[in-house]
Amino acid sequence: MVRKIGIYKGCLALSPLIVFLGLYVVVSLVIGDFYKIPLSVALLVATVWGLLVFRNQTFIERVEIFAREAGNSNILYMIWIFLLAGCFATLADKTGAVESTVALTINQLPSSFVMPGLFLAACFISMAIGTSVGTVVALTPLAVNFAQNVGADIPFFVAIVLGGSFFGDNLSFISDTTIAATRTQGCKMNEKFKSNFLLVLPAAIITFGIYLFGDFTIDSAPSGVPANPWLVIPYLAVIVLAISGVNVSLTLLSGILLAIIIALCLGYDFFSILGFMGEGMDGMGNLIIVTILAAGMLGLIKSAGGVDFLLGVLTSKIKGKRGAQGAIASLVGIVNLCTANNTVAILTVGSISKNIASEYNILPRRSASLLDTASCIVQSLIPYGAQTLLATSLASIPPTAPWPYLYYPWALAVIVILSIILSPFNRPRLLSKN
User: What is the end-to-end Cα distance of the chain in Å, rounded?
Assistant: First the structure.
């Protein structure tokens, strides 16, 4: 049941998000420099604003809401993954595993296929493991070294990984977003997959074509670069275990253990190895701070009625099937903007979306597809999403740096909009089998 929130109270509830976006995105665009305002500072200012202006609880109660949301099990588990990812990435980098993996790859590929090949790898891995975070962990360090070896911008290559990772997160049968969307809409996974595939395939083909035929200035991939095949084993293990469906924690722990063993065999000092691991975990500090602040701030917004206000506004403007489909996509997208978690966004608006779909005779598979796809589009474009934060932290670049190069989510957004305008999913011949 959605609470009815007045305009004044609703806008006030959303004001921390407005303060954050205004301070970080708008000001940075105006001054032309996203390095000037740290993301963590923008989130801190927005959080303090929320603690001060919300009057529905005492100040201590508001702080407790912030702490509870910032410290929930999902956030803590995410932080655990960040620590393991930082540990593995730095250990692999310092011992030469990343360089060897890149060298073995570029020795076999023409430079023109490095970008489309990386995109296909990200699509395949994310489809197999059902998680964009796991794909980001596995491929971002490789993407950074690819960029350095072919003379390309690092944000550009990080964006390739992010786009491909959301391809599988949106489409995979074992993705948590797929499970949430199909359960809330009451459709089978294979039905949702077929509906989704009609959206993601054109976007993926367009993106692949851009990487393959686009006029990008890169140096020729160096040939004959020396590499130690033994150092590649940790990365291969991480990718194979991830594709096999092994939990991401166990996958990263296995990769770390293998990297330690190989480093010791190659003569690295044990205490130096521990130092590399510590350096990697320390490097995740800012990412962890941003994650905690974002979760707490968004918890305050939800508690104050910001999400309920959005749901009420959007559901009151529905007119016809196209409007209903647009409302479903907009609902989950805007809630995702507020929660920075696509699974949570789907679960939040799932029941409302099902009611809308039922009232306007929209197939459950279509509403499930819209929920999953629209949430993944927004999640991939916001600079404070977990995947972008993790990828840019591993690459040591600002969270907004990959944004201009996110061709896949933008292509997918265009396809979704066209599918709503043209409404091919509502024609009688497609309604015959539900």
Answer: 28
